[in-house]
Amino acid sequence: MTIRAVVRGVGHYLPARVVPNSEFEASLDTTDEWIRSRSGIERRHFAADDETTATMATEAARAALDDAGLGADALDAIVLATSTPDLTFPATATIVQARLGMTRGFAYDVQAVCAGFVFAMANAQAMIVAGQARRVLVIGAETFSRIMDWSDRSTCVLFGDGAGAVIVEGQEGAGATADRGVLSVDLHSDGRHREALYVDGGVATNQRAGHLRMQGKEVFRHAIEKLAATADTALDRAGLGADDIDWLVPHQANLRIINGTAHRLGIGMERVIVTVQDHGNTSAASIPLALSVGYAAGRIRRGDLLVLEAIGGGLAWGALVLRW
Ligand code: UT7
Question: What domains are there in the chain, each with its CATH number?
């Protein structure tokens, strides 16, 4: 028998304000046509002034708890992936813990930028296998609108805000590829590529929140090269191949990257969950948002084989094979 982290519930939250590409045409030298054709993005959600990463994460968590039919005290741990925490400390996860009324267990944040949700799920799986927790709420939540340089057209049109959450629970499987739950994980980072994507502020450097800086072409090149490779490695580790995949659930940064990765893996776009047109790039929130939207639409079903993959600042990247 093998214990695995099995998804028990999923949910998401998107702020009410939807911003179409055309809204940027008034303030920037850009067009809806450029944004759509270069990235696939058509609109994104931006948080209201009184919304934060913690408020959105809490809403997504409540939706996931409802879906699982559980109360917050049934959780042993919260792992929240974010690069846009409410405060330098405490961890945003502890703010969510208090808002949910969870009075036991532990909560902490994980920071792997756009790959954060894959890292957080890997962390939850490891804790469940080690017997440190049985039920873990894994959240990806971001307020990237707060770290945009609104004068930089090459970045500010690409990102959005939102939160997605899943609840995973340790369940015994036969140790076979037909088991539900996390079947394999592949994680990487390479700090030599820091300049490709970073925020130019921080507590220990200049005491500012800073703004996102990105060499788009450079990140694009790494993404195309690394995402299919990490997905292949994770599939290999699970003893599965691309033909076994029901759904590729990629990080939603750019439709051209998603197409390129699916093509390299030999997967048709009818087997890919795509939300980038509606959400923009929501960093660590993008995969759980795609999972929740795909599940709510009746596309992702119990027993389906999913591959999650993401790359972002660090660079950090990875993939995870999950039977829903
Ligand atoms: O989530 C973390 C991972 N992040 C990513 O995966 C992002 C990866 N990179 C990308 O998605 C793409 O590189 C971008 C969408 C950021 C850019 O697409 P691109 O095809 O690589 O365009 P580019 O950066 O080469 O820019 C082409 C041209 C440039 O003009 P010149 O130098 O050729 O005259 C840019 O100045 O497009 C210009 N440009 C714009 N034009 C209109 C850049 N941003 C804009 C804009 N509107 N918003």
Answer: 2-173 (3.40.47.10), 181-323 (3.40.47.10)
